[in-house]
Each structure stands twice: as structure tokens, then as C-alpha cells.
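Collaborator request, handled under Task 6.
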Amino acid sequence: MADLLASVLDAHGGLDAWRSVEGITAAVTMGGPFWRRKGWPTPTVEYTIDIDPGGCTPSFPRSPHRMSPSGSTAIGERVELLRQAPFASRLDPRRSFDGLTAESSWDDPLRLGYFIGYAMWNYLTTPLLFTYPGVTSRELPDRRVEVTFPPSVATHTPTQVFYFDGDFRLTRIDYAVAVNGNSLAAHFTSECRTFDGLAIPTRREVFRRSPDGAPEIRVITVDIHDVVVPAGSRVIHSVA
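C-alpha cells returned to the collaborator:
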């Protein structure tokens, strides 16, 4: 497994490059029928997110164009919604999903902020995320890796399967979404681009997955339009 993990890290820019990053800022658009199903009437979510690769601290410093979370900040196990000052907050936001099913509405913007925050933090820190304390992995056939995350890592579900192509670039993730009634998902990544040496997929499509692994209906799209990577005192803009 060590050799495969090393190859995956090298294919995405190398462990040294990832560990030198102090922060990542990404301009993101999310679409798909999932958001309407969760009670948000507009078809897209547009925002800029800042993350700290060294810890689960995603934030939304600038207002999205079409839909909340406007000024939402998701930090570890605390979520706040901000205007000029905090007006709503929740400790242990994960527990607010207890008892909800895949059909339940997320009319509470704190739930939306928490979901988008931890999801994008996961996506923008992969594959560095595999090296975090307590994360374990085992190699499966066909360049697949089963990764198990400890409770300290906010993620979709503790155990996920990551797929890599012949160049060891990420192409797919299979998981269940615990905060959405453990619904099964097949998550495809493509259009990988390099930002200051870090290879990051800029297109993601999430499908509802059947128990046999087949993707069914596309429910979420994620497009990353730009990434800024401050490395030390430098700020490097995206390279197409």
C-alpha cells in the first residue's frame, strides 16, 4: 500500500508540495437536483471557499451569488452563519442530522453550511487527507484503495473506496452519505488541472449508486473555476 499511496501523492503534486501549502481558496459552482430536493429552490450554489489543509477549517469568506450559505463558516464541529456579526451557531452540527432520511429537507442553513464545508474540505485536501493521523487504507484490485477515517475527520462516511487511473490520478469515489440517510453515492472526478504544482480535479459529478455499484441518477455537479494556493509568502494563481 505504501508504494501505491506514494504513486498517488506523486501524481497529484507530491507530498512535500501538499505539506507546504498554508491554505487553498477555490471558486466553486454546485448544481444538480439534490439542492432543490433539500429545500433550496435555486438550481445552483456559487461561492468562494477557503480551507486550511492542515485542519478541518473550511470557510465561505464571500457571499455566493444565488443561494446560502451567505457568510457561512464551518469550523471543525462548529458552524456559524454570519452577516455583520454571528446570528446563529451550532456546536456539534453533525448531530442535527440525526433521524433525517434521504427525503428530509435541509431548511436549516446551518445544515447546508456544514455539508458543503466538510465535503469541499475533503475534496480539496485529497490525497493529502490519506496521510492524516488515524487514517488507514488498504489496497484493492484495479488501483482502488479502501480508506477508513477516524471520528476526528468530518467526512461522508468512515469507509470509502477511491479509484485511480493508470497515471494514479483520482477518477471515482464510492461512499454512503451518513448525513443524507446513508444514501449510496458514486462520485466521479475529471478535468484535473495543476495549481502551483498541485493536481486538483475541477469537475465532479455525484450519482446515486445502486447496491451493486452502478451509477444511476446524477444528483450533484461541482465545478471549480479557479484556485489560489498561498505557499509561504507567495500567492500563485491557477494555471489552466
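The cover message to the collaborator said: "The chain has one domain: 2-236. The chain has four helices and 14 strands. Please let us know whether this matches your experimental observations."
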